[in-house]
């Protein structure tokens, strides 16, 4: 999934489709992105370390996909994250301690 160089992107909602492949690593780089909703697709692979690179993400919805691996420690970089929804995947491991860095 390629969405280009949308520098003012605030909301990316592409839920309930049949998108496959991985979560695009560049989505976390959009400095104004506050909501990422990829619920109910066919996404595979891991949650990218870059998912919270912008530090402004407030809502993360990745439920009902085929994601594997662990929740990345970088999730703690989302200081304003108020909602994380990652259920119905194939994630392993525990909740990273860095999640305690989230202030919301």
TrEMBL record:
Question: SUPFAM superfamilies, per this entry?
Answer: L domain-like
Task: Identify the InterPro entries for this entry.
Answer: Leu-rich_rpt, LRR-RLK, LRR_dom_sf
Looking up Pfam families in the UniProt record yields: LRR_8
- Species for this entry: Solanum chacoense (Chaco potato)
Q: What is this protein called?
A: Putative ovule protein
